[in-house]
Design goal:
With 427 residues, the protein is of the alpha/beta class. Helices cover 30% and strands 15% of the residues. It has a single domain (2-11, 20-319), classed as Alkaline Phosphatase, subunit A (3-Layer(aba) Sandwich). α7 runs parallel beside α8 (205-230).
Length: 427
């Protein structure tokens, strides 16, 4: 019933854009923490190219992802539906074919649609997010020295994006998505881009990992700088975001996918282009806003199926309630178990209401005041019982109004399993 209603709602799209339609560029980075960006306050100069661009951008300081996993996060962005609505709650659960996607709207409106991918979980057969793209460049699986490449490195991503720009006629409105994956584990060390003055080989494990991660961020920024230099300068709108962050030992956790703490959930998010006033905003934004906002940047209508906010033409209300979930990061090896995971309940849920954040699990709920305690170090659950009850009621109402969809688990090949294992997504 849900998917049938989505098909009907998808018919409300815009007519083809006029000759003055802007080009829309969507640049995303995997596993990128908001606090590593200079424009978000990082003092180490890791991201000079993105920071320079962000000087003319509208920056969303309070953006969170829908779910701290690559496939489901981008599924939420491109469908503008929470993962539970589509059933795309874990890597290996593809987007149902019936769900309308943002790229399809661009394509139907006459845009030349191109994507350059870098993460195995976003391959067409595993994600079904290629729909609407005339070019979906995700062929990076060639083995090198018998080792399977589960990610495409940033220099290769930029090379392929530049090649795609050369093949474009330069006149047809362009929708280009370029996704970088280098900050994702395993973290490679880029010695010349180390801002800390300490070798990761001469320090403890935790500090070593943080240094390696930071050099991956700096390397990605360098390659994004190459891409930005080649983009059209006239009538071009750009969005920058990450799919989720990464916990680097905060709350005794390394990685992403299973926790809802801010290092995993808070994402850098900014937009720039014609008609967009530069500055900063604390309006509550989230992953499902990406699709409508990309369409708004092009002046296109948003399908009725999309539940997010077009942040170009509308403003998110300060009292907006945001609810996020995680269903666990790993993919079971056995086909039967993969089918069962499509029906799994969330491991954790979180309710954002103004500065308050309630994290709900089966056994251990926590309440944080993020503006006073951004590190989520003190739970105020015991002293804010009335607030907790209200927020739990908001969660229950959201669950009632957000029906669960179901995605069929993808058939994983031996190479899929090998790639997912190398990325830490296989149990």
């Amino acid at each position: 019933m849900l998917l049938a209603s989505l098909i009907i709602a998808a018919t409300a799209v815009a007519s083809p854009p006029p000759d003055s339609a802007p080009h829309v560029i969507f640049i995303s980075v995997d596993t990128l923490r908001a606090d590593r960006m200079g424009f978000m306050g990082n003092p180490h100069g890791l991201t000079p190219n993105i920071d320079a661009w962000a000087e003319d951008a509208l920056i969303f300081d309070q953006a969170v992802c829908e779910i701290p996993l690559t496939g489901p996060s981008f599924g939420a962005m491109f469908s503008s539906l929470p993962p539970r609505s589509t059933g795309m709650t874990r890597n290996g659960l593809p987007m149902p074919m019936e769900v309308p996607l943002t790229a399809e709207v661009f394509q139907e409106a006459g845009y030349h649609t191109v994507c350059v991918q870098s993460n195995w979980t976003l391959k067409p057969e595993l994600s079904q997010l290629h729909r609407g793209f005339e070019v979906y460049d995700a062929d990076f699986s060639r083995r090198r020295w018998i080792v399977l490449k589960s990610e495409r490195r940033a220099n290769e991503v930029t090379d392929h994006a530049l090649a795609a720009l050369e093949e474009w006629d330069g006149e047809t409105p362009l929708f280009l998505w370029v996704h970088y994956s280098d900050p994702h584990a395993p973290y490679r060390y880029h010695r010349r881009l180390n801002p800390h003055g300490r070798s990761p080989h001469l320090v403890g494990r935790e500090e070593s990992i943080k240094i390696r991660y930071d050099t991956e961020v700096a390397y990605t920024d360098e390659q994004i700088g190459r891409l930005m230099d080649a983009l059209p300068t006239e009538n071009t709108a750009i969005m920058f975001i990450s799919d989720h962050g990464e916990s680097l030992f905060e709350h005794d956790y390394l990685g992403h996918g299973r926790r809802l703490n801010e290092p995993s959930m808070h994402v850098p998010f900014a937009i720039a282009g014609p008609g967009i006033e530069p500055g900063r905003t604390d309006q509550p934004s989230q992953g499902i806003d990406v699709g409508p906002t990309l369409l708004g940047m092009a002046g296109l209508s948003v399908p009725e199926s999309m539940t997010g906010i077009d942040l170009v033409r509308d403003r998110a209300d300060e009292g907006r309630i945001r609810i996020v979930e995680t269903y666990g990061g790993a993919v079971p090896r056995l086909p039967g178990a993969r089918a069962m995971m499509a029906d799994a309940e969330p491991q954790r849920q979180a309710v954002y209401a103004g500065p308050w954040k309630l994290v709900v699990t089966d056994t251990n709920n926590k309440l944080f005041h993020l503006s006073r305690d951004p590190g989520e170090s003190e739970s105020l659950l015991a002293r804010e019982r009335t607030r907790v009850e209200t927020m739990r009621e908001l969660l229950a109402a959201w669950e009632e109004s957000t029906p669960k969809g179901r995605a069929e688990a993808a058939e994983l090949t031996a190479e899929d399993l090998e790639a997912l294992e190398s990325l830490g997504y296989l149990e």
